[in-house]
Amino acid sequence: MYDEILFPTDGSEASKRTLPHAVSQAQAFDARVHVLYVVNTTYAGVGAGGSKNVNSLRAEGEEVTEEFEQRLRDRDVDVVTRVEEGDPHAKITEYAADETDMIVMGTRGRSGIEKYLLGSVTEKVVRTADVPVFTVRTPE
Hints:
Layout: E1 4-8, H1 13-29, E2 32-40, H2 54-74, E3 79-86, H3 88-99, E4 102-107, H4 112-118, H5 121-128, E5 133-137
Parallel strand pairs: 1-2, 1-4, 2-3, 4-5
């Protein structure tokens, strides 16, 4: 039913806690997992004049995807990795529409003003993705 599963990650503890669910789905469907890290270039602190350099964030993304790649390979799951730049929810939904048939991702369960101010990448993905989204609620 699902041959290609997208596992977007930011390297957080929430992502690490979500990984077993991606593994479970991949093993159940004999699917390949796509590990995607998106460098958020829409954040005001990134790029020219910002405190964060896109190249250093890309390098961080490469490290994160390599770590998850190894964890998946250790569980005999076929995996591909990718680091993209842009708006995270847009890149995730675009990648999913082009490459995969399911998304497995965590949500931190923010609420109130924090959710309003920060938004939720997962919530935006759930509302706009063309493929099913399996969400895993993790503690903040």
